[in-house]
Structures are given as C-alpha cells and as structure tokens.
C-alpha cells in the first residue's frame, strides 16, 4: 500500500460547556443564540489523522490527503476552518439549511439540518467514492443526538471493516491497521487491512489547539461547497420527534445516623 487518503467528518454542535434548554414548543433543543463548536469526538478524529501523517514520515504508509467534511448550515464552515487550522488539507461543506432558511419542520431538530445518521452515512459513502478515500476517522457519536450510528452504518454501506471506540491506532507498512478499544473489564485489540472505518473515543489523544498562524493559513485552504442533491442519494428523514422534555428534578437525599438506620430506611422504601 503506497498512501492513505483520510476523510474526517466533523459536526457543529452546541458547545459541551453549555447546558442545553428545550425550546418553548418542546419539539427540539433551543439553538438560537447558543454557542456552538466542533463536536469533541470529531476533534479527536482530526488530531488522530494529523498524528498519523506525522508518524508516517518515519514509519507506515504515507498520508497523502486529509479531508474535513461537514453537513450542516452555513455556519458549519466554522468547524471546517477549525479542522483545517488543526491540520486538515481541505474541506467539503454539504449545505443543509437551518431553521432560519426553512430547513426544519415541526418535530425536527439538530444542527446537522434535517439529516439522520443513515442520511449522513449515505453522503459519506458517496464522498469516499468520489474522493478515492481509503480511511475514514470519525467521532463515535455527536454530543447533540448521541446516536452512535453513523460510523457503523458507513462501514456497512461500504462493506469495509470497522473498529469502533478506538483508544489507540497504529498503522503498519503493509497497510495493516491495529486498533485498541476499551470494552467492559479490559481492552480489545483488532487488526484489519485498509480500507477501514475507525470511530474515536476520548482516550485516543489530546487534541491540539489551532495556532494563530495556522488559523490564518486555514482561510486560504480550499473549501468546496456542495448540496445533498449533488450526491444523488435519498437523505430524507425517517423519524419524527414527537416531544422533547427535560428530565424530572431529582429528589433530595436523606442523612442517616447509622448503618442500621440506613438499612431500615431502605426497607421502608422497598429497595431491599
């Protein structure tokens, strides 16, 4: 195997430090006027792609191209520019109108427009074909819908091997990819030949901060704009959100003076 062409999907989501609020109609999370940023798991994906290129200078197949890809409203270009500032070579933006552009209907939500994981996976599969990609690294889930489905669906559509929730990725010169993933009670090591789909977990790496010079350079890197129709796939929604509501407030706890009192109280509550 001579070189790698890596596709890294990224998503614009409500910033992880912001407490989400349900909108007044209880159909979705309120996104207007709320700080957004790149999905944290996608930051790990960009960082790992860049590290693979850095390591390829001394060992393993050469990383020829790193493409950042996002489907969402106009502001999704912000996270693409961030990805390019972190080290991606170019970006592809699939424009999906937001609510202000008439892109959402009642019961539909998410800053990826009206796209569901299957729709995103179909778009990515076409992108892989068009861009001649042989590795896809993406976050295991986005923190807005927590679906944890896109990577697995993409691997199924492509017929590629997959390694989910990766905590370590290594590439051999022959194109063999070794992925360590955490499972209940230990770790699991998987090996597969490229092409492969990898989804990232939190312990994989520590994403770098984009430096000011790299942010300025990212503004000059190519960013191609497309529409879902350009891929010729059906991305319409199959699900409708009926209602969104906050969880009920937790009841306050009680202090007890001894173990016997605690056991007695648990028996009264029917817990034991």
Automatic annotation (TrEMBL):
Functional description taken from the UniProt entry: The electron transfer flavoprotein serves as a specific electron acceptor for several dehydrogenases, including five acyl-CoA dehydrogenases, glutaryl-CoA and sarcosine dehydrogenase. It transfers the electrons to the main mitochondrial respiratory chain via ETF-ubiquinone oxidoreductase (ETF dehydrogenase).
PROSITE patterns, alphabetized: ETF_BETA
Gene3D superfamilies according to UniProt: HUPs
Entry superkingdom: Eukaryota
Name under which the protein is recorded: Probable electron transfer flavoprotein subunit beta
Entry keyword annotation includes 4Fe-4S: no
Quaternary structure annotation from Swiss-Prot or TrEMBL: Heterodimer of an alpha and a beta subunit.
InterPro entries for this protein: ET-Flavoprotein_bsu_CS (IPR000049), ETF_a/b_N (IPR014730), ETF_b (IPR012255), ETF_beta_N (IPR033948), Rossmann-like_a/b/a_fold (IPR014729)
Region forming the signal peptide: none
Domain Electron transfer flavoprotein alpha/beta-subunit N-terminal: 26-235
Keywords of the record: Electron transport, Mitochondrion, Transport
UniProt subcellular location: Mitochondrion matrix
Organism: Coniosporium apollinis
Binding note for cofactor: Binds 1 FAD per dimer. Binds 1 AMP per subunit.
CDD domains: ETF_beta
């Amino acid at each position: 195997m001579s070189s790698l062409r890596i596709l890294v999907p990224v998503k614009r989501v409500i910033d992880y430090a912001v407490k989400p609020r349900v909108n007044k109609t209880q159909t979705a999370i309120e996104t207007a006027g709320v700080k957004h940023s790149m999905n944290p798991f996608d930051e790990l994906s960009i960082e790992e792609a860049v590290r693979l290129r850095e390591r390829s200078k001394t060992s393993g197949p050469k990383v020829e191209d790193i493409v950042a890809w996002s489907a969402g409203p106009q502001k999704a270009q912000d996270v693409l520019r961030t990805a390019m500032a972190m080290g991606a070579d170019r970006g592809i933006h699939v424009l999906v109108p937001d609510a202000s552009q008439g892109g959402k209907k009642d019961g539909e939500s998410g800053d990826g427009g009206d796209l569901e994981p299957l729709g995103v996976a179909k778009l990515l599969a076409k992108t892989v074909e068009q861009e001649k990609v042989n590795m896809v690294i993406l976050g295991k889930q986005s923190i807005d819908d927590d679906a944890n489905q896109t990577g697995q669906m993409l691997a199924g559509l492509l017929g590629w091997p997959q390694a989910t929730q990766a905590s370590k990725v290594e590439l051999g010169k022959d194109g063999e990819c070794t992925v360590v993933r955490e499972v209940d009670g230990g770790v699991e090591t998987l090996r597969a030949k490229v092409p492969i789909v990898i989804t990232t977990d939190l312990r994989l790496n520590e994403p770098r901060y984009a430096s000011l010079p790299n942010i300025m350079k990212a503004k000059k890197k190519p960013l191609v704009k497309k529409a879902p129709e350009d891929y010729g796939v059906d991305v319409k929604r199959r699900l409708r959100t009926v209602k969104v509501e906050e969880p009920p407030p937790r009841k306050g706890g009680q202090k007890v003076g001894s173990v016997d009192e605690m056991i007695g109280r648990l028996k009264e509550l029917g817990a034991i």
